């Protein structure tokens, strides 16, 4: 039998962070999350959707009436679960680090003391605590700021101290509550880099709450879209953008080319026009079923000359934001508008202007269709 | 009950119109007695005030009633408070004798009267601490006692200090309740404010003036000191939230 190294033994334990949360009030929650050690899982949703509540529940700062939180093989919280005994670790007992949006550093302590305070119950002696904290400050690149008080530090520096405080206890999970939203872009990039490095070294599940989809796309391995306390879809960023589960997800991830149609054995008819696309579906949608469908930006291209498969379109709006130009293209003979985004250079090359005619090519293979559920389904299109 | 009140009447008369104190020299006994009373009150009331204030901030349902109870001494006339204390303390205490007309009696009265002055600034200071900081302390693995000791107390110290000054200054100046409980026994219960009243009653304006001035100066020093120290460092303001 092959020798099982320490690493292999470690891998055999179920180290995943499992979160199941259910409640009706004050805000309804139906949450189902799994996060592997070493992976970063982003919770994205509009404000008030319950993202921060979820994070606080994982940390033990509040509790749902029903749920299960399990991490690294240990049960942190269990209430009203069929086979489990009810368990509730306090926030202090849960080995997890928490990063607050407003840093929440102790104003009466300097940077070093802000970190050693988290080692109070570590069993280490005072000098060991100090040297461990100094080591971590050096890792975060702020070793020389150890004796500054929080009000003497910039936002980015404060968040580095806070990150160090969260990690110095060697937590088994890291929870980030919009930690970068109050920090300017250049500083933020430095923090992303540190986070990336720590993530590789520490191999713990990391959950990031953010309302910034770009940030989530940049950092996360998995994104869960939260809306009204319900986890709508969990997927890697690219899947989420190309294959949203339903129209609400499509809307929340900012896909704006969202349409109604009917689907019948590989043929998608576009409601409000007589266009038919051949679209591949895995056979899950019954014949003649009403669907929402999206055209991802990657499926669109605009040309000056017509081709056999192109649509003639009229340009009804042009807006430029920096390097990106966004256009409204109205399909001739219908009311449908397609949003097209391209680099300003490409638009210049096409030399199109407001009101002029162009030809739009839609890559049928990239069209994504989503069945519309019953009227009462909260996930149906709400636009 | 009637007997007690009659006895009280006699003690008042004895104390207030006391012909044996020489009128020409200022008697420092009332000043020292007042300082002693103020210091004892401070020593006992501060820990109690911190304890009560800490628990008041955590209360939920009965908070207004509990807060109201501890604020009562602010609104009740000293006579009402004094009457209840008198009735409460006139029986035999565990020490075997009544606490009325004793230093211990006026100390108890002073503790009760000063409750709101000790509790309220400390409670305000606790409540001004940003709740995020307490949560940060929790997720840093600190126990409630550690959070209290390492986070809440250092951030609420200015409140504790104002409580101390208010209690001290207020005890020095307390008149009504102390008079009702203690009468005016020289060296035992005759505090400075009662001595001033006593001197005025006997038309000894000069002594009353000197005693008044000394009380005024001591009070001013206490309050000025506290204002000087209370000029809060910036970190205290940073730790507070303004809801």
* Residue share in helix of chain B: over 70%
Stretches of chain B where pLDDT is under 50 for at least 5 consecutive residues are: 13-17
What percent of residues of chain A are in strands?
Answer: 25-35%
- Gyration radius of chain A, to the nearest Å? 25 Å
Number of domains of chain B: 1
Beta-strand percentage range of chain B: under 5%
Give me the number of helical elements of chain A: 10
Biggest sheet character of chain B: none
Tell me which protein chains meet in the greatest interface and how many residues each side has: A-B, 29 and 22 residues
Determine the mean pLDDT of chain A.
86
Let me know the number of strands of chain A.
21
CATH architecture of chain B: Orthogonal Bundle
Largest sheet of chain A: 6 strands, mixed
Order of neighbouring strands in the sheet with most strands of chain A: 7-8-9-3-10-11
General shape of chain A: globular
Number of domains of chain A: 3
* First-residue to last-residue Cα separation of chain B: 51 Å
In whole angstroms, the N-to-C terminal distance of chain A is 60 Å
Number of helices of chain B: 11
Layout of SSEs?
The complex is a heterodimer of chains A (383) and B (243).
Chain A: H1 6-12, E1 17-23, E2 29-35, E3 40-44, H2 51-59, E4 66-71, E5 74-79, E6 87-88, E7 96-99, H3 111-116, H4 126-139, H5 155-167, E8 173-177, H6 185-202, E9 206-210, H7 213-219, E10 222-227, E11 230-235, H8 237-242, H9 247-252, E12 258-264, E13 267-270, E14 276-278, E15 289-294, E16 300-303, E17 311-321, E18 324-331, E19 337-343, H10 344-350, E20 357-362, E21 368-371
Parallel strand pairs in A: 3-9, 3-10, 7-8, 8-9
Antiparallel strand pairs in A: 1-2, 1-4, 4-5, 5-6, 10-11, 12-13, 12-15, 13-14, 15-21, 16-20, 17-18, 17-20, 18-19
Chain B: H1 2-16, H2 29-58, H3 63-75, H4 78-90, H5 103-127, H6 131-139, H7 144-173, H8 176-182, H9 192-201, H10 205-230, H11 234-238
Helix pairs in contact in B: 2-5, 2-7, 2-9, 3-5, 4-8, 5-7, 5-8, 6-7, 7-10, 9-10
């Amino acid at each position: 039998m092959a020798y099982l190294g320490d690493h292999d033994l470690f891998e055999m334990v179920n180290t995943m962070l499992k979160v199941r949360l259910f409640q009706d009030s004050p805000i309804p929650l139906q949450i189902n999350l799994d996060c592997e050690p070493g992976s970063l899982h982003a919770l994205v949703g509009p404000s008030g959707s319950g993202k921060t509540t979820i994070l606080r529940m994982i940390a033990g700062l509040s509790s749902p009436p029903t749920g299960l939180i399990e991490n690294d093989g240990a049960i942190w919280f269990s209430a009203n679960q069929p086979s489990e005994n009810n368990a509730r670790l306090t926030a202090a007992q849960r080995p997890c680090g928490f990063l607050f949006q407003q840093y929440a550093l102790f104003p009466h302590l300097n940077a070093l003391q802000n970190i050693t305070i988290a080692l109070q119950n570590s069993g280490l002696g005072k000098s060991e605590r100090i040297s461990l904290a100094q080591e971590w400050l050096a890792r975060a690149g702020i070793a020389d700021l150890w004796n500054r008080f929080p009000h003497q530090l910039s936002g980015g520096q404060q968040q580095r101290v806070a990150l160090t405080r969260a990690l110095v206890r060697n937590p088994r999970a890291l929870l980030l509550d919009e930690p970068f939203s109050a920090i300017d872009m250049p500083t933020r990039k430095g923090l992303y880099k540190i986070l990336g490095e720590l993530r590789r070294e520490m191999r713990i599940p990391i959950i990031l709450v953010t309302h910034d989809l770009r940030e989530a796309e940049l950092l996360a391995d998995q994104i869960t879209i939260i809306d009204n306390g319900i986890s709508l879809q969990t997927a890697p960023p690219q899947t989420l953008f190309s294959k949203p589960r339903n129209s609400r997800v499509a809307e929340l991830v900012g896909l704006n080319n969202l349409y109604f149609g009917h689907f019948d054995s590989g043929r998608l008819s576009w409601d409000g026009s007589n266009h038919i696309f051949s679209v591949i579906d895995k056979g899950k949608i019954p014949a003649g079923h009403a669907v929402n469908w999206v055209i991802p930006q990657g499926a669109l291209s605009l040309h000056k000359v017509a081709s056999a498969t192109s649509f003639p379109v009229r340009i009804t709006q042009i807006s430029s934001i920096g390097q990106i130009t966004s256009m409204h293209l109205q399909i001739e003979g219908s009311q449908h508008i397609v949003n097209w985004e391209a680099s300003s250079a490409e638009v210049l090359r096409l030399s199109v202007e407001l009101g002029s005619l162009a030809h739009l090519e839609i890559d049928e293979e990239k069209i994504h269709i989503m069945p519309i559920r019953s009227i009462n389904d909260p996930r149906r299109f709400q636009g | 009950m009637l007997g007690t009140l009659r006895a009280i009447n006699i003690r008042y008369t004895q104390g207030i119109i006391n012909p044996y104190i020489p009128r020409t020299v200022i008697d420092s006994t009332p000043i020292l007695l007042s300082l002693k009373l103020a210091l004892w009150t401070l020593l006992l009331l501060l820990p109690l005030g911190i304890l009560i204030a800490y628990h008041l901030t955590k209360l939920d349902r009965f908070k207004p009633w509990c807060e109201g109870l501890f604020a009562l001494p602010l609104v009740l006339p000293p006579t009402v408070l004094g009457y209840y204390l008198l009735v409460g303390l006139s029986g035999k205490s565990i020490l075997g004798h009544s606490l009325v007309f004793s230093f211990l009696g006026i100390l108890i009265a002073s503790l009760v009267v000063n409750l709101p002055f000790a509790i309220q600034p400390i409670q305000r200071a606790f409540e001004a601490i940003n709740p995020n900081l307490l949560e940060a302390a929790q997720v840093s693995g600190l126990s409630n006692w550690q959070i209290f000791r390492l986070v809440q107390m250092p951030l609420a110290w200015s409140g504790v200090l104002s409580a101390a000054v208010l209690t001290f200054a207020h005890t020095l100046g307390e008149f009504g309740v102390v008079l009702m409980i203690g009468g005016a026994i020289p060296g035992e219960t005759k505090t400075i404010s009662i001595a001033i009243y006593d001197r005025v009653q006997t038309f000894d304006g000069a002594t009353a003036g000197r005693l008044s001035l000394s009380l005024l100066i001591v009070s001013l020093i206490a309050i000025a000191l506290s204002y000087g120290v209370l000029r809060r460092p910036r970190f205290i303001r940073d730790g507070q939230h303004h809801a």
